[in-house]
Amino acid sequence: MVTAVKSLPDFLAESWISLANSSGILRVFWTFTASHSLSAWRCHVLDYNAVVGEVVKPGAVALPRGARVLDAIASAGGVTEFASLDEAQIIRSTQAVIPLNLQAILKGDQQANVELQPGDVIIILRDRTNLVFVAGQVNKPGLVPLRQAPSLLGAMVQAGGLTEKASLTEGRIIRKSGEIIPLDLEALLLRGDLSKNIPLKAGDVIFIPEGTYQIYVLGAVNNPGAFKVRGEVTALDALNLAGGINRSRATGKGRIIRRVSSGAQAGAPATESSVVTLNLEQLLRRADLGQNVTLRPGDILYVEEVGLPSMFEVILTILSGLKNLVSIFR
Predict the structure, then answer these.
(1) What region, left, alpha or beta, does residue 98 occupy, with left being phi > 0 and alpha being psi -120 to 50 degrees?
(2) CB-based burial label for 37 (10 Å; 0-12, 13-18, 19+)
(3) What does the pLDDT look like over 210-249, one tens digit per residue?
(4) Rounded to an integer, what distance in angstroms lies between the CA atom of residue 159 and that of residue 303?
């Protein structure tokens, strides 16, 4: 294959050097000769283009003539979760810089989906504005794109759920304006009060502090909630704290869901060792003490009820940090 070599104009070379230094997204599509002068930068134009920045597999992509921006992005594995949909552009060998509307392109707007020319380089920058930060007692603290977590529940899921030390009553959102919003995760997660699912804004910081030793009792009980305890607590103790079983809703089965940090690897799917099955009928009616399992800090005792309530999977994921839990209850 014959390689056509074209000089990269000095002003574009300066832009690329600046971009490489500031964001580290410069890839092997460009080469720099031993002379170290700006005019020595060269673009190797083959039958391919390049996609750099916030895509899964940045670099050169082989595309047929007539391909469009979306084809190149798909060949690069798609955009990352941190891609800015408002800051993308094409740099052409003709010195032209073409802004791109990724929002429209990803929604199927053919007019916005520009046809590519050989040697085009698509740059997708990182979104540094539409983010929230989750800190404290969560399994994966850090930045979360606002478009993936427009509300508190979404941010908690993206952050991997709560640790066993998390306080459900002392969390807060700190806004860029300085406003502090108290969180009531107990009402949201244990009582299903969606009015506590606060909409988030760009720049919000969600902080979940450490609480005291607590266990959770959910499902067909009269008073579901989080209970602060000391010393050894058994399944029967936990049921008493929650006001006993609601027999009109209970199936007679129960499960203790172990926290990630109690044995399973963080972020791993639930396994048999993550869940302890209880026969509550045997425990309550026949005094089978073999069913009276001792709970650990952060354990969730779920008393099975007829039909899974709405938000069940989200709530268990946040409280336990274990994925794919609903399949255990089917």
Answers:
(1) beta
(2) exposed
(3) 877 788 898 889 998 888 877 788 999 999 999 999 988 8
(4) 26
> How many angstroms separate the CA atoms of 116 and 66, rounded?
7
Is residue 322 domain-shared with residue 220, that is, in the same domain?
A: yes
Q: What is the DSSP string of 65-86?
A: TT-BHHHHHHHTT-B-TTEEEE
DSSP 218: E
Count the domains in the chain: 3
Model confidence, pTM: 0.57
Give the integer Cα–Cα distance in Å for 322 and 275: 10
For residue 102, give its domain range: 4-126
The stretches of the chain forming alpha helices (DSSP H) are: 10-23, 69-75, 102-106, 152-158, 185, 235-241, 280-285, 312-320, 326-329
Residue 302's nearest CA partner among 271, 324, 273, 280 is 280
Which residue intervals of 94-133 are DSSP H helices?
102-106
